[in-house]
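Retro notes (design track)

What went well: tokenization of the new backbones is finally stable.
What didn't: we kept losing track of which sequence belonged to which structure.
Fix going forward: every design gets posted as structure first, then sequence, in one message. First example under the new rule, 186 residues:
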């Protein structure tokens, strides 16, 4: 009997969406096998530059990502608590991920990352670099294409802490490896 691959639901923050829009790769989210990417309305509202909002709308229409609002009062309560500490989009992502036991795609650090690790446990935040690693491994982009996209992102003031995806795939840093591990259920 063949093993059934579980779909990992990933609540996606605006910074990751905007990074992928900058490099014309929003379609990667719909192409990564075993993953489903959802976007809360609070995140969609943060994508406010017209050209980026249009690209995001096309991503919804194409089915690369899905709009998804809160499903109950527990998420709303956590959102209300968190929105006084972090941005509305990040708070929505974290509230949904906590209640639904999902993963978050975000490049936020500091307070957000600390809260995510406390509330979700380690390995439940996937960043832009991690998405590219998944895409490379899935044969969706080459290392060279990912490095070109990395260069474009740097022109948009998003800096990754390595010089090439070739280095990342060769050394698998703990930061990029952590999101691949299954979260502990104990």
């Amino acid at each position: 009997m063949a093993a059934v691959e579980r779909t990992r639901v990933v609540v996606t923050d605006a910074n990751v969406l905007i990074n992928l829009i900058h490099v014309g790769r929003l379609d990667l989210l719909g192409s990564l096998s075993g993953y489903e990417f959802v976007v809360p309305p609070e995140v969609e509202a943060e994508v406010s530059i017209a050209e980026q909002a249009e690209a995001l709308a096309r991503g919804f229409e194409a089915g690369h990502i899905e709009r998804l609002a809160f499903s109950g009062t527990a998420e709303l309560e956590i959102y209300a608590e968190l929105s006084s500490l972090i941005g509305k989009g990040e708070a929505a992502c974290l509230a949904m991920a906590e209640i639904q036991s999902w993963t978050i795609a975000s490049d936020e650090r500091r307070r957000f990352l600390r809260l995510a690790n406390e509330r979700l446990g380690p390995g439940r935040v996937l960043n832009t670099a991690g998405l590219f690693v998944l895409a490379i491994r899935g044969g969706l982009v080459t290392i060279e294409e990912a490095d070109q996209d990395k260069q474009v992102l740097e022109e948009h003031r998003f800096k990754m802490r390595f010089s090439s995806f070739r280095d990342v795939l060769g050394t698998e840093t703990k930061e990029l490896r952590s999101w691949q591990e299954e979260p502990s259920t104990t």
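Added context from the reviewer: The CA atoms of residues 25 and 89 lie 21 Å apart.
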